[in-house]
Amino acid sequence: MFDWITGAIDSMGLFGVALFMFLENVFPPIPSELIMPLAGFNAARGDMNLITVIIAGSIGSLAGAQLWYEIGRRIGRQRIRALADRHGRWLTVSPDEFDQADHWFERHGGMAVLIGRLIPTVRTFISVPAGIARMGRVHFLLLSGIGTVAWTSLLAVLGYVLEGGYDAVSAWLDPVSTAVVVALIGAYLYRVATYGRRQRRKHPLDA
């Protein structure tokens, strides 16, 4: 997996960094915790520029966040909740979990967007409640942008700094990165398989 990601970034350049980060925000196939450090590796080797890597990663990530924001803004709370109720098994998001995210945003507002962009998994979906609440687009992009740039910069710089130990790191990071992706897929399949059981536990009278 390590070699595949670095090879893809090598062949597609900055566009590949932006594309991977966009996809990671729409439906996380490969976590940013792998994408940006590996892009930082490439920058340290002279294949890319660290600043442009951070910019490309941030643009891709923000594009994904903006997509979820627009979905929330256009579809609205009731229709999204109904979607979670109807297709929650495959989305692995139940109406109750959607309500929890919605209430968290209502309590913390803009700080939920700013801090949420720094938290794995949460940052993928925090844009939806912001869109539902019709937070101003400029305000949303500003707060989301601050959190996104901070996160992508941290990960890219870590990869850049560790470049000196590339050979040693790659020896253990390749199986680790593969294990991370397999674990994500496994977690998704587990949530799909146990969705009905979890719902019955929350609403035993409806069973």
From TrEMBL:
Membrane topology: Multi-pass membrane protein
Transmembrane found in the keyword field: yes
Pfam families found in the cross-reference section: VTT_dom
Protein's name in the database: Alkaline phosphatase
Domain VTT: 30-160
Transmembrane parts of this sequence: 12-30, 50-69, 140-162, 168-190
Keyword terms of this UniProt record: Cell membrane, Membrane, Transmembrane, Transmembrane helix
Places the protein is found: Cell membrane
Keyword Transferase: no
Gene Ontology annotations for the cellular component aspect, listed alphabetically: plasma membrane
Highest taxon above the source species: Bacteria
Database matches in InterPro entries: DedA_domain (IPR051311), VTT_dom (IPR032816)
